[in-house]
Amino acid sequence: MSGNPDESQIIKPPSPRSGLRRLLLAVIVLAAAAIVVYALAHNKQDSGTLHCYVGGTMGPVFKDLADRWLKKTGQKVELDISDSGQAIVKLQTAKKGDLIVVHDPFHGQLANEGLSVGGWHIASLTPVMVVKKGNPRGIKAIADVDRDDVKLIYTHPVFSTLGHIMPIVFRKAGLDPRKMQDKAVSLPRSGAEAANAVILGKADAGFCWDAVAFLRSKDLDVIPISPELRPQPKVDVVSGATYGQIDMGEVRVTIDVLGCSDQRKAAEDFAAFCASKDNEKLWQDKGFTLPREGAARLKDASAAQPGATLLLYAGAGLRPAVEKVIEAFRAKTGITVEADWGGSSIILSRLKVAKRGDLFMPGDEYHIGLLKKDTDLVASSAPVCYFVPVILVPKGNPAKIKSVADLVRPGVKLALGRADQCQIGRNSQQIFAKAGLDAEAIKANTVFESTTVNELGVQVQTGHVSATVVWDAVANYYKKDAETIAIPPEQNVISQVNIAALKCGKFPDQARQFVEFITGPEGKAILTANQYQTEPPK
User: Quick check: do 50-122+252-303 and 389-486 share a fold?
Assistant: First the structure.
């Protein structure tokens, strides 16, 4: 090879014209590649991950649906699994996500709060009775749970859709719902907890959804509930301010596309896929009931709300008396008030998210102050009653509790409200601090936490805890099974309950009438008759 390369070996710089041709050629090649990639992506949907909140009962089937969708489209679905109520709270807090899967009544809440832009009824849940494998107690029908040798468990009527249904079932079976509640060894929040208690031998019979029982079929036998004992479709309908009208005759599993989704088309396609006939067998194989009339698009539940109904957000501890006030007000004026009950912090969050409603009555005026601080929704407020915290213990006081100081003794089991969610929890922490109690010792003794005051009394009633702290009026409802211990005024923290009329209300005149009624002689008489103090405690 010579030292001077021939012309064919020399790499020459491109001329301006040839460089332009090459650039154009590169652009054409890249464009063609982009078209191919776009075509592939179009066939495989948006490759961005979908975020889907899923109620726990539906978790197993959605793991399979997500896998099928990934294989079909190449798109991943990230599942955030918790119970249906918690899924709603997560969504309200994060304000992010693409889809949510819950069971009734939660679709109504999604529609009413404007969180859903549509979706599907994809499956249904049916209540069943479960017993340990082999049915050692020989339980054959619902009537058998009334036997003295049968320990019963089912979910709480306030915190569970199934628990709400069970009094209907008991009445139709000729059983007293109140007696059944007193008989229950526990009233957990979920059917899974009830089913697990039967497996562990803590109860002989329990009630849960068919899909929950299916997941435990290795350890449980299922005793179906006769259709005539279950809530009847289009007959057993309930209506509430939060959820709209819900047909308890068919408890729906729904998938909603969220208004906050930035991948709405892909979310809608996934929802339709979950509701498709191709996946019907998957739902059946996981123990769910297929929709009575087939999978169907959802209608806006808020459309069922009566036009002239007042919406009241109210602390759960007020419910026993205020329900009677509401009924007396309706009888006198013809005006309906629908109440959304819950822990004070929870209903405050709901109101701030929804920005709709006529009245707000939390367990302490403190929360009305927070609403004023964060929004311009409060038109006016007025005092209604006063809550005085007391210690509640089981009848006979087996732990010998005499004062707040005894609550930190070793071996004492406490049920307490959550300070971040309900007013009784907040007051309890302030009381403990005033008494100089060690926060870690209180925490160590706490075996149960609740988002409302109502469930605390149940824990004492059923003997699961040594003591709790509840309002004096709430304690009155457990006097058959429990005793109260007064907290000295210098240690106590009393709550003033106010009711606020809201600027976002549709019916300000009717809201004013209700405020005048509940704070006037007739309302006070009802509150006083139910042990609620309408004058400042001395």
Answer: yes
